[in-house]
Specification:
2 domains, mainly alpha, 8 helices
Length: about 160
């Protein structure tokens, strides 16, 4: 994993792979649906995207936990994650700037996190009211399915 932290080592591995016409996976083409070779710069970008999703999806799960949906919780989390991932792939310049600042702040690992403090509000606005309504509907359907299953399974034969 140190390779991913040191672009010079990563670049050297890619060069060796190309020179010897081998496939050690340094450029990861066999392990991705993206046909473009992985460069050190792309690794950095991908790592930032993974960190962003980790931060955002954790905060999102915490928001949903706070609502206390019971058995509908997991369905709400899955649906909201799906929608947030879609939005993260299509951000406005202002939104992108915020999320870049969020990752930068996270990498500083300081106690004071003013950008992170805004995240719940940003997430609420990232999805439309229709999205939130659909997430609530999915949670409700999950609760209803559990309810129905319980009573169907407990009926006398």
């Amino acid at each position: 994993m140190d390779v991913l932290h040191d672009p010079s080592i990563f670049a050297e591995l890619i060069q060796i792979e190309a020179e010897h016409e081998g496939d050690i996976g340094a450029g990861f083409p066999a392990y991705t649906h993206d046909p473009k070779p992985v460069t050190p710069e792309r690794v950095i970008t991908m790592r930032r995207q993974v960190r962003l999703q980790s931060i955002v999806l954790s905060e999102l799960a915490e928001m949903i936990e706070h609502i206390n949906l019971g058995v509908g919780r997991e369905a709400a989390i899955v649906e909201s994650r799906r929608r947030i991932r879609q939005r993260l792939g299509n951000l406005t310049q202002e939104q992108q700037a915020y999320f870049d600042a969020l990752v930068d702040e996270d990498q500083l690992q300081t106690e004071d996190k003013p950008v992170r403090a805004e995240l719940k509000s940003v997430l609420r606005g990232l999805l439309s009211q229709a999205d939130w309504d659909d997430i609530g509907r999915v949670a409700t359907e999950s609760i209803q399915a559990q309810w129905t299953e319980y009573f169907q399974s407990s009926q006398p034969a």
